[in-house]
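Slide 14.
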Amino acid sequence: MSEVYADRRVRLRDRCAAAGSPAALVSRPANVRYLAGGSPPDSVLLVGPEPESDVLLCPVPPGGEPADGRLDELLRQQVLPAGGGDPAVAAVDLARRAGADALAVEEHHLTVARHRAMGSVAPALRLADLACAVEQLRIVKDEDEIACLRIAAEIADQALGELLESILVGRTERHLALELERRLVDHGADGAAFPTSVGTGPHSGRRGHRPTDRRVEEGDFLTVCLGADYRGYRCEIGRTFVIGTTPADWQIELYELVFAAQRAGRESLAPGAEYRDVDRAARQILDAAGHAEAAVPLTGHGVGLEIDEDPQLSPSAMGKLDACVPVTVEPGVHLPGRGGVRIDDTLVVRQEADGGPELLTITTKELLAL
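Slide 15: predicted structure.
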């Protein structure tokens, strides 16, 4: 894997050089992990003008915790002395002593105070904005990254499938969410990809609903959204069910509508497709049925080392999909006081010659009565 991380740093180095910066300082943890294989707490990565000048600066020796990743063995590490201060400030000083005249930094991740401290240690060093260069490199995944996402999806499917086989009536949203997160770990996840959402009755279909002590009742819609973190890579799945009885007519109608929107979104995933066109494919079905105000604000987003990363599949998003980009497709409708439906899958954009979009989360989307 060392070659993979080295190649990623080369691509960043080339981009910085083209913009007039011989070096870059990466401080955002997910970006450090992408380029270095791991991100020990509070560490920063200095990418120099030559591969041998790359160095990971850490305030304490890396502890080898699984959650921090597995560091590139060929990457030089520098542990600051006790009380050595901020690794980012130390990295700026290191770049100055190496003769750099400019350093690209992640301004979107730095506080004003930290940026000022970095500037004060090397006043003659020009601090340029690296912007979201690393995030842009992360959008297209290699097959090893996709393999981790595939395993994360399998774990999430397993956890959800086991829950569906248990008795649900009378249990609280909070209890079900905790059980799902335990099952994720039991099946090999490093943890939950994000706080598990369980919504019942009037809470169902709400994006990002935080579980409460409301108990599952007969006739409820039950919406579950969960994801697994496997070796740092995070997937997402969401499903809606009916509890303990034959669905009411309005439930069937609403479910079929959201399912049609989700299918349209999935089928529009292709290299070259506009981000906003994917959103439009799903949204226009909900809008035509009179649910424009009740629909979720975006149809999907990228996943990877973070659960919500670029691209954003929203009405105003600019850009086009590439092959090997994993995204969610997650339209939903929530009717205040009644509940709603959300259906959420993680897929990988593939060329039509390769079979089209690859579905990673395979739990049935049939409207089940549990």
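Speaker note: The domain at 1-137 is CATH 3.40.350.10 (Creatine Amidinohydrolase; Chain A, domain 1).
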